[in-house]
């Protein structure tokens, strides 16, 4: 980041130039994290969809690599996944040198293998650790009859009890997840459909089926992640999830919201406007799913004022599955590898009590990029919080607040910089919940054009982009109509 590229994130993945959206083909291989992603090599808005590629050792510092698979007139490369084919079951590598196999969506153009507009699943492989990719000759490997224009987003997981791969895909505009199985990654047989529960929204996209251990027990459950657009909890694009069982054929969600229930009854991975298409890193170490998500929303992503790049990934997260009071719930935290980097710096701390007013935290907390741990003890106050990236007179800024009576955590970006690029850039996002001990604990990852607020140890997350003035770096806490005790810890990044 610099005054001439003021919204370039410091600790989030971006491409040096041009448009990016969904993360694709996330895989951990030979000690390196690979992120591929929907990328336009020729422009700063969606189009010419190709797979860009970046690598990282620690999930914070990324190095951009050459484009892995480039769009052509006959085929764009939409979202998909990568697995390491350890036993060379596909035959696309060798026993000595097992291939990386990508399953992706072919979106056909002129003179493609299928009619223009059709979408089907294809395979590609790499025998040099992910640097170069060859398309499989028999593509597509999976097509629907009749051919469909919204059949996409393959994500593959290994199903040990049956010793086969399971692929989730969507027929996006029919709000259906379709499951298939294969023993060689090239021939796929239909297993079942998953539909009719949870928020329906417009399109269903980028599904994933994950097996997870239940925290503090030996039980395991299956989790379905699903992106929907529009119809997310914060408007536009959003991500919901379902917890249940998978018997090798069918995924059965338990305690899922009815399709016509209020959106609040569905389970959401994030309550902000900018978390979409997240999927997990295949083979990630550490035993917990590590998720990378796109920090964008189709409502306005094409109009955000950044140049020559547009689009960033959220901080990699790890998921934990816990038994909540009524049903199983996911908790999100910053992925361990990234956390280690972000927590490395020296911590600055300040404890203070504010009554009916605000207090500037001073230059120690004036970093554009910082990891803040904030604890609020609301005492007599009605509402309290923190104002970040504000002007010297504190008349603007990103406002994160908690209101006691309603138990509402709110992230308000309505007066936090440039926002006139789209009428759909929604002003604020919120989630309700009541801390058991009355103390609100927020872990806030602030970067130059985004904030990720992890509330109460990751019970809820709010991820939002915003575009503040470069020289607005103020940070203040405030307490309204009463007294609040604050403990603020921050590490500049
Ligand atoms: C989700 C999505 C996917 C598709 C890709 C195209 O954001 O629409 O369904 O594969 O983006 O770029």
From TrEMBL:
Keywords: Glycosidase, Hydrolase. PROSITE patterns: TAT. One of its GO terms (molecular function) is sucrose alpha-glucosidase activity. Residues 349-485 form the Glycosyl hydrolase family 32 C-terminal domain. It comes from the Bacteria. SUPFAM superfamilies: Arabinanase/levansucrase/invertase, Concanavalin A-like lectins/glucanases. One of its GO terms (cellular component) is cytoplasm. CDD domains: GH32_Inu-like. It holds the Pfam family Glyco_hydro_32N. InterPro entries: ConA-like_dom_sf, Glyco_hydro_32, Glyco_hydro_32_C, Glyco_hydro_32_N, Glyco_hydro_beta-prop_sf, TAT_signal. Residues 12-323 form the Glycosyl hydrolase family 32 N-terminal domain. The keyword Hydrolase applies. One of its GO terms (biological process) is sucrose catabolic process. Belongs to the glycosyl hydrolase 32 family. PANTHER family: EXOINULINASE INUD (AFU_ORTHOLOGUE AFUA_5G00480), GLYCOSYL HYDROLASE FAMILY 32 N-TERMINAL DOMAIN-CONTAINING PROTEIN. This is Glycoside hydrolase family 32 protein.
């Amino acid at each position: 980041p610099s005054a001439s590229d003021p919204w370039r994130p410091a600790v989030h993945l971006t491409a040096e130039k041009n448009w990016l959206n969904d993360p694709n083909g996330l895989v951990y291989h030979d000690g390196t994290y690979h992120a591929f992603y929907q990328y336009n090599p020729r422009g700063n808005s969606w189009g010419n969809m190709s797979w860009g590629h970046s690598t990282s050792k620690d999930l914070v510092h990324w190095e951009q690599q050459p484009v892995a698979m480039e769009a052509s007139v006959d085929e764009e490369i939409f979202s998909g996944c990568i697995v390491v084919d350890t036993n060379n079951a596909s035959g696309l590598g060798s026993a000595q040198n097992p291939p990386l196999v990508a399953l992706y969506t072919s979106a056909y153009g002129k003179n493609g293998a299928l009619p223009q507009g059709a979408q089907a699943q294809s395979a590609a492989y790499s025998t040099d650790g992910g640097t170069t990719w060859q398309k499989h000759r028999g593509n597509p490997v999976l097509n629907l009859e009749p051919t469909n224009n919204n059949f996409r987003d393959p994500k593959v997981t290994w199903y040990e009890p049956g010793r086969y791969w399971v692929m989730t895909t969507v027929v996006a505009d029919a709000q259906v997840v379709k499951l298939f199985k294969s023993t060689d990654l090239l021939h796929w047989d239909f297993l079942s459909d998953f539909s009719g529960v949870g928020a329906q929204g417009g399109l269903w996209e980028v599904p994933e089926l994950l097996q997870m251990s239940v925290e503090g027990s030996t039980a395991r459950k299956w989790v379905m992640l699903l992106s929907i657009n529009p119809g997310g909890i914060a408007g536009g694009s959003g991500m919901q999830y379902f917890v249940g069982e998978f018997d090798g054929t069918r995924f059965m969600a338990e305690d899922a919201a009815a399709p016509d229930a209020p959106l609040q009854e569905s389970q959401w991975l994030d309550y902000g406007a900018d978390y979409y298409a997240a999927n997990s890193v295949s083979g990630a170490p550490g035993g917990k799913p590590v998720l990378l998500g796109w920090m964008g929303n189709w409502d306005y992503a094409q109009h955000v004022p950044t140049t020559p790049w547009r689009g960033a990934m959220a901080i990699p997260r790890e998921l934990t599955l816990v038994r909540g009071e009524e049903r199983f719930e996911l908790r999100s935290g910053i992925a361990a590898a990234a956390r280690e980097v972000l927590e490395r710096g020296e911590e600055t701390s300040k404890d203070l009590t504010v009554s009916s007013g605000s207090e500037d935290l001073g230059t120690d907390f004036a970093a554009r990029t910082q990891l803040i741990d904030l604890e609020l003890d609301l005492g007599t106050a009605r509402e309290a919080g923190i104002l970040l990236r504000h002007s010297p007179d504190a008349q603007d800024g990103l406002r994160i607040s908690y209101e006691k009576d309603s138990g509402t955590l709110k992230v308000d970006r309505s007066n936090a910089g440039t926002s006139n690029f789209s009428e759909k850039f929604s002003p604020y996002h919120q989630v309700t919940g009541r801390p058991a001990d009355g103390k609100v604990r927020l872990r806030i990852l602030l970067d130059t054009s985004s904030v990720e607020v992890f509330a109460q140890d990751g019970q809820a997350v709010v991820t939002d982009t915003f575009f503040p003035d470069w020289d607005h770096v103020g940070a203040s806490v405030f307490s309204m109509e009463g007294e609040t005790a604050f403990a603020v810890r921050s590490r500049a990044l």
